[in-house]
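Review form for a predicted model. The reviewer records the input and the model, then writes brief findings.
Reviewer: anonymous (R2)
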Amino acid sequence: MRFVVAFLCLAIPSTALAQQAVNEQLRCPECQIELEYRCTLGSSDGPGELRSIPYRGTVDSRGRLVILQPNTGDLASVFDQDCDFVQRIGREGEGPNEYGNLKYVRASGDQLLLWDAANGRLTWVSPEYEETRTRLMESQLHDVLELSDGRLVANVSIRREATSGYALHLIAADGRMLHSFDTHAILYGDATSFFRHLFPSTSGGFWSVNAYSRYSIAEWTADATEIRRFSREAYEPYGLPNYGSKSTDTPPHWRVKGGWVEGDTLWLVSRLPDERWREGVLDAEPSESEPGAAGSFPLKDMKKAYDEVLEAIDLNSGQVIARHVEDFPNLRMVLGPRMIGRWERDDLGWYHLRVYNVRFDGRQ
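Model under review:
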């Protein structure tokens, strides 16, 4: 069944609350977060091949890995728990069980949510990978969370008078727009400042985490009322997105890549400036012809410019519990709770995704 989202409501700004700074001092310095290699998916030939960077992925209700390659327009690929190829989801096209350009996937209960940019719709898929319902969603989607009553919280760009300028939108189960909210740290002219990651909370509401711009973690009720917010001023001033820096004296831009919530603990994977980031910034005048963001100082050495950090944050106190730091390996993405993927490219140009389980030795 297809629902059309109506845009006749009036967006109501969320009430601004005092922010609490994240406590960067580790609560458990001796605790260890480790990545345990599990398997590698993606063949160099045949139906399980990855022709481009595996951009999005999730773990479905049967423990299978569902991987997207938006740059190719390929269908979603399904791999079993040992990373062996199983099947593709649907067919190419515009009809039922058909997709044009999949750019988003998320597990929601026993179903999958798939967003198809070419057909402008969000599709619910059963454990057997058959379409169960769809909803029109033509604008750019970054993240979406289905609440227990069927309503959606969507981080989507909706260019309508009542919804423009808000990062998040609450949508009824029947497709009606209920509420547009969250204007925190939105920088007009910078589309990335609208991007959020969404996670369910133990109270029935949800958490949002800014992917770029100001580093902020907010808790909301199920009706989109802001409860509290943690900020991370330690990462300010910030540079520009797209691997640039405002100047050779400004750290390059950080990015939150994803995460998950376990009880009252938020796990985040982030790209943060390395201590030696100045060695990685190109010492040249800003130029739109240079690689990186226009008008910024592009980077000459990503490994020197960035670290990648996996950390656990206590959502009650806002204190970092433990942290795992690596010297900028290849793009790491969150597949599900305690599961992370890192892509690599072989000598023939084929992509592979190495899958790791996250182990936490909590000696608290």
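Findings: Residues 302-305 form the longest helix (4 residues).
Further findings: Residues 1-15, 237-243, 286-295 have pLDDT under 50 and may be disordered.
Recommendation: see findings above.
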